[in-house]
Amino acid sequence: MSFRELNRQKTWLLPPTLDELIPDDHPARFVSTVVDSLDQSFWNKLGISLDGEPLGAPAYHPRALLGVWLYGFMTGTRSSRKLESACRDQLPYLWLTGWQYPDHNTLWRFYKEHRKEMRQLFKITVKTAVKLDLVDLAVQAIDGTKLSGNASRDKTYDAKSLKRLLEHTDEMIQELEKENDSGNDPSPVHLPEKLRKAKQLQEKVKSALVELEKGEQQKRVNLSDKDATIMKSRHGIIAGYNLESVASPLKANKTKKTGMLVTGIEVVPNPEDYQQLVPMLKQSEEMTGQIAGMTLADAGYHSGSNLAACERRQQRITMPGSQDRRLKNPYHKDNFIYTIQTDSYTCPEGQVLQFLEIRSLGVNKEVRVYGGLGKVCRHCPAFGTCTKSRYRGREVLIGQYDAELRRHRAWMETDEAKTIFKQRKEIIEPVFGIMKEQMGVRRFLLRGLGNVQAEAVTLATAFNLRILYGIWREWASEKRNLIVITVQEMVDSLFFNIFISTHFRTLSFCYN
């Protein structure tokens, strides 16, 4: 079998055009289609004029820079230096930039200045999918995953450790200053490298001590990223953040593609999930314009206050309780029968528990205490199982949200709740899997909570663009224009509403 000719000096009689470099259904073409459909109102929000500046050297077009960043996040390239290399040797990036080579400083400045406005683009992707009736909002799932920050957990200190480090740093600086004491020679223009780094560390430690003294709840601080906190992940203890996400599945009758659309994204420094349930539900409602028919969440979000908030919002939710094992106890308080006329409870063995007192269990948490007679409980056959208190007998603590908890536990016992809850993993777990495995997000690259939140929003935007690209690729060329038209409609609608609300607030302020 002969070989094909290998000639690295080959020339073309008719050079190929730029448009021939990538296929018609390439994701880079979809990215450019979306970016090109963003009109001046979107760029005005970013403080960019598409006409450019009359003075100075010509700048790279913002559509090219935005396209590079979006395509980079979609394909797992999130570093400005790696994007610079890609713009020089990868055809999709060369096509997006029109065969131009923006350097990493140009790319970074653009992203740094405008990344916080990416939430508007994220909202446009969600509203576009909803407008096209691609998203099944009958159900949504919420979950969080722990991601490492751009910080080492070994650089996390408490106040006592910081004071020891500060003492050690002060001693090191004194020794370095003695070594660099040059007698009558003039002082050096620049500090020696070791001394400069030691003084930088000294300033960091002092600043960290001030932060700890300010924060009442914060007990430790990371010197690399002061907002990153120590938390437990599946891969061990990390210094990082909790990435919260809400997702809904695509409608099977609208597309052959299976997948999920992210309708809410947030990053918080707290490892606990329960505080994020209501904010994420509100964000999802804002993004989609409606309340999902059913929300699925794991036990990490379970609390009485969350259940009460969902009832006020008329938000149906399915999530296991944090005390499911205790419910199996035949003497759990749910098995005690309440009598409203006498304000008392009757235990499974027939003893009546009267109201005793209102007891404080901590900050802003009070419970009503009901108790029986100690001498009756001591002779009860359930003594030792129901209670071990020989003198006070059994006590039942009823909190503010006890009624909501009981109603939700009754709902979770139904076959309907058990069946629908099985969908939770199928909806939300693949979202994190795709982000980590296919989009390469194993850790955040930026530092500081605000910057990490902007990074997460860009990630969610790129995730939704991947989903919309799959549908765009599936559709015929005539139907593809629907996405472009819908994006333009969502841009006009979104920024018109922003203008009206801002203008109305200004008029109201002037009037008042």
SSE layout:
Blueprint lengths: L26 H10 L3 H6 L16 H14 L4 H10 L1 H7 L6 H11 L3 H14 L8 E9 L7 E3 H21 L13 H22 L5 E3 L6 E5 L2 E14 L10 E9 L8 H12 L6 E2 L7 H10 L3 E2 L5 H4 L9 E3 L4 E3 L5 E11 L2 E7 L2 H5 L16 E4 L3 H11 L2 H7 L1 H16 L10 H26 L2 H35 L1
Parallel strand pairs: 1-7, 7-8
Antiparallel strand pairs: 1-5, 2-3, 4-5, 5-6, 9-10, 10-11, 11-12, 12-13
Helix pairs in contact: 1-3, 3-17, 4-5, 4-6, 7-17, 7-18, 8-9, 11-14
List keywords for this structure.
alpha+beta, 5-stranded antiparallel β-sheet, 18 helices, 13 strands, disordered C terminus
Structural account:
The protein is of the alpha+beta class and 512 residues long. The chain has 4 domains: 18-127 and 475-511, no CATH class; 134-150 and 229-319 and 414-449, Nucleotidyltransferase, domain 5; 154-181 and 190-222; 332-393, no CATH class. Helices cover 47% and strands 15% of the residues. The strands form 3 sheets. Strands 1, 4, 5, 6, 7 and 8 form a 6-stranded mixed β-sheet that branches.
